[in-house]
Here is the input.
Amino acid sequence: MDELKLDAVVKTPGGQPSTNEEALEAIADAHPLPRLILEYRGLAKLRSTYTEKLPGAINPDTGRVHTSYHQAGAATGRLASSDPNLQNIPIRTEDGRRIRKAFIAPPGRRIMACDYSQIELRIMAHLSEDAGLLRAFESGQDVHRATAAEVFGATSPEDVTSDQRRAAKAINFGLMYGMSAFGLARQLGIARGEAQDYIALYFARYPGVRAYMDRTRAQAKDQGYVETVFGRRLYLPDINARNQGLRAGAERAAINAPMQGTAADIIKRAMVAVDAWLRPRAARALMIMQVHDELVFEVDADFAETLRSGVVACMRDAAALRVPLVVDTGFGDNWDEAH
DNA sequence: CGACTCACG
DNA sequence: ACGTACGTGAGTCGT
Here is the structure.
């Protein structure tokens, strides 16, 4: 970067000039090299982590890849997956999806994927009891579109542009992570002041969400922990630290953990229910993977619809919140098609 | 073994 | 004023 006079705009946690995707993207217009490096890195990652590793992970006795799930692997209550990690199989790029297509159903069977729709935002609606958010989910609206209509003042959700919806989606996700105006600005490529305006507008339209977040921070500082809907706690030893960076990090974790943790509780309850439902039907279908808000099955082709209705009921009824839980399902001969 | 990067929700 | 979005696992590189 020195030689080509390209300025680094991002620093690593160690204070060095970063060469990560964001940093290279920022200087890609000044020289052809950054984009070539990104392209190479993306392909090298897919090859070294997946293409060259997964075939060696096939168990010769079963002909399958078996991951390890860790029940207490993540602080929030999520499962973790390792050796190999099957919770980070690519999906976001076309080349990546070629990896996912390699996970196939045996002859005569199909893959079924079932995922919770917007589960963490639904939990935020439940916990905050915010009237606008509850209404959006109760009426089955596209919640990012509804948020965009509120924040950007569209007369109706149909008038929301794709850019407005994208910005609203970033706001919705960012809020659940305890983001700042700076973080939103960076995510959207806009000025800090503009991002701050969006956030202020959001909280004006969804006052229950702001009150909930203030409550959660206060409770964390007071009690030293936050908890999920079902009462499972995450202790936050840094929540009152004098070191501002540590303290701010703990505050963001305090905001996020009840939502991420409740979602983890709910899908685990669903898995127990699915297991019980499936037990007398074990020859017809297997629950084979969990990916945080998704369950994956293999199923006899002629049993697929029966499985779908059984699993959807288990997942939908795993918790009774102030908003409905919605489950999306898909089938395919491979995991990619099932989405 | 730590730092960095990047795959996923 | 300050740093700046949550939670993971794994590959590569340098020490």
Notes: The first helix of chain A runs from residue 21 to 26. Strands of chain A lie at 58-59, 64-65, 68-70, 80-82, 109-116, 225-227, 233-235, 285-290, 294-300, 327-332.
